[in-house]
Amino acid sequence: MPRPTIPDRRDTLLDVAERLVLDRGFDAMSVQAVADAAGVSKGGVYREFAGKHELLDAVLQRSTARLGDRVDALTAHLPRPVPLSALYRAGVEALLDNPLMSAAMLDDRAVLGEHVRAVGPERYRARFRWITGHIEELRAAGQVRADVDPEAVSLALSSVTIGLLSASALIGPLTSEQLRAALGVVAELVRVGIDGSGADAGDDAGQPAPRTHDDQEAP
Q1: CB of 197 closer than 8 Å to CB of 143
Q2: Among 34, 46, 50, 77, which residue's Cβ finds the most Cβ atoms within 10 Å?
Q3: 47-80 b/e with 16+ CB inside 10 Å = b?
Q4: CA dihedral 108, 65, 190, 192 (to 10 degrees)
Q5: Chain segment 193-211, per-residue pLDDT in tens
Q6: Which residues contact 119 (CB under 8 A, 6 or more apart)?
C-alpha cells in the first residue's frame, strides 16, 4: 500500500535530516533513516535529493539563509554599511544560537563527518572573501581606520571566533553566556581599535550585524 503524500515534503525532509545530523552525526545518518522518520518511502527522499550529501547541502543552505534572515532583522534599523563591531556581534550571536551552523564553521567531524572533506575549502574561502569585501566597503565609507588591512582583519576575527567556539574542548565546558561575553569583548576591541569613528551605532541593539546576506554561500 503506497504511503500517503505529505505537504511540504522537501521542508519536512530537511527538518528531519537536520535533527538526525545533530543527534547522530552525518556519517551515522542514512537516507532510509530520514525516510522512516519523515514517514515517506526511501524513493520519496531520492525524488527530492540525489543522496546524503545533497540532502545535507540543502540543510546547510537553508540554515545559512535563516541565519542571514535573523541578522537582517536585528539590523533593520541600523545604517548601511553596518559598523564592523556590530557585524561581528550579530554574526556571533546568530551562530551561537544555531548548532548546525556552529558545527559547520568548526568543521566539526562529530556532526558533519565525511561531508567536511567532501565539501572542500572553496565555500569557506567564499565566506572569507565576503567578510573581507564587507570590511573594504566599510573602509571606503570611513567606518574603519584607513590603515586597516581588510584581509588581515577578516582572518583575525574568523580565527578568534573559531578558537572561542572550540575552547571548551581545551579548557573545559563553557556556557553560551560565557562565550557571548568573551566574543562581546572582541567586538568591543574592534569598536574601539578598528571602527573608524568608534561610534556606538549598533550598541543599543546589543547584537547587530551585516548588510544583506544574499550573496553569501552556505558554510
Answers
A1: yes
A2: 34
A3: ebbeebeebbbbbbebbbeebbebbbebbeebee
A4: -150
A5: 898 654 444 444 343 333 4
A6: 57
Higher-scoring residue by pLDDT: 148, 5: 148
The gap between the terminal CA atoms of the chain, to the nearest Å, is: 40
Label residue 183 exposed, middle or buried (CB < 10 Å: 0-12, 13-18, 19+). buried
* Res 219 pLDDT > 60: no
Separation CA 182–CA 198 (nearest Å) = 20
Q: How confident is the model at residue 102 (pLDDT cuts 50, 70, 90)?
A: confident
C-alpha 184/C-alpha 25 separation (Å) is 30
Q: Do the Cβ atoms of 216 and 104 come closer than 8 Å? A: no
Q: To which residue does cell 571566533 refer? A: 161
Q: What is the mean pLDDT of residues 156-171?
A: 85
Round to whole Å and give the CA distance between 7 and 154: 42
Rounded CA gap, 180 and 216, in Å? 23
Dig out the grid coordinates for 74 from the structure. Answer: 536585528
Scanning the structure block, which residue is given the C-alpha cell 535529493? 49
